[in-house]
Amino acid sequence: MMSVSSPEAAPTRDPTYYIADGNTVLQVENTLFKVHRSMLIKDKSTFDSMFSLDAYTQNTEDALMATNSEGESDENPIRLHGDKAEEFSALMWSLYSLPAEIAYSMSLQANDLQLIHLARIAHKYQFRSTEIWALSALTTYHSNAGGSPSVQNLVQITELSILCDCKALLGAAVAKWKRLLGEGRAVAVAIGVAERLNLRSLLGLAYYSMMLKGRDVWDSDPQLNARQRIRLLSGHYNLIKLCEELPSCPPRLTHDHSCVRKGKCKNAFAALWKIILTTKEGGLVGQVLKVQSADLPAKVMLAESIIRAFAEGNIPAIDLSESGEIHEKCLQIALQATQDKVKEVQENLVDWFSDVV
């Protein structure tokens, strides 16, 4: 027996933006909007050129053929394909809202999803000032420590920042991702987003965060694919090797011009670096450095904090045997070199997670 498909439901009028004295009907998905054409052509949007072309076409055709022009009735609306009703509703909200409603959207109680919809459709139809304003409102909201979007919204915000080339919003979004990763949340989602959008720094941190969870988690997480699991294995192996070599590879030290010890300071710093990063029982930080064998970022950050304590006099000088003490100004340079090492490890973390074990 042949099945009969049910007829498509008739479109319904939007409860807010089907305006009685509007003069243009548009259909987005299965929703009808009736608004004022003068509002749609604001900001020299795409609608401005579209309606100008309509007017030219109608003026050059026979008048009898234009008795029921597109957009003049529910039966013959202007159909916007590829848009969502909630996005078009957000655009109408921006065009018809009162100043108090607009001001509210800049507060911590803002509806970030509405702003996402607005920025995306404003970008598509070239409402330039509206797009800039919506992106600014989103950046302000998400730069605030109190703004806490859902993971789904954060994905959309990150995609939007790339679509609109908004570096400020991207920075705010990445900061939110880093907070989630620090809490061990949405790690596989972050890997997927960072790979798809080619966000290098976020991708390295996401792989690193997943690596720390352990292989049992990698193998059981349904959001990770085989290639991503290979990259995790590769990263784990590479970082273990780097950590093994780390005590013998101190950051490069350049001497202060007032230092007369020259090579001795370099040797003293190398000795101090090795003592700090010795993880064998009985080493200086053997009891402090309780981190995973592959946790390179944690190890260099710990080294930086200890060298800072030496430089600020919070830890007394230690006996570096034949190397002697490090000149005071050279110690400050050593601290800066260690801070640069921390930054280098963080920025290049993704390089160690290759596709080949």
Structural summary, described in words:
The chain has 2 domains: 12-185, Potassium Channel Kv1.1, Chain A (2-Layer Sandwich), CATH 3.30.710.10; 248-352, no CATH class. Strands 1-3-2-4 form a 4-stranded mixed β-sheet. The protein starts with 11 loop residues before the first strand and ends in a 10-residue tail after the last helix. A hairpin with a 2-residue loop joins β2 (24-28) and β3 (31-35). It is mostly helical and 357 residues long. The chain is built from 15 helices and 4 strands.
List keywords for this structure.
single chain; 357 residues; mainly alpha; Potassium Channel Kv1.1, Chain A; 2 domains; four-stranded mixed sheet; disordered N terminus; BTB/POZ_dom
In terms of topology, how is this protein built?
Blueprint lengths: L11 E7 L5 E5 L2 E5 L1 H4 L5 H15 L17 E3 L4 H12 L2 H6 L7 H13 L3 H16 L7 H13 L3 H16 L4 H11 L2 H14 L1 H6 L5 H20 L17 H14 L19 H16 L16 H20 L10
Parallel strand pairs: 1-3, 2-4
Antiparallel strand pairs: 2-3
Helix pairs in contact: 3-5, 5-6, 5-7, 6-8, 7-8, 7-9, 8-10, 9-10, 10-12, 14-15
Protein name: BTB domain-containing protein
- Order of the strands making up the biggest sheet: 1-3-2-4
- Distance between the ends: 56 Å
The shape is elongated
Structural class: mainly alpha
Mean pLDDT over the full residue set: 85
Summarize the structure.
The chain is mainly α and 357 residues long.
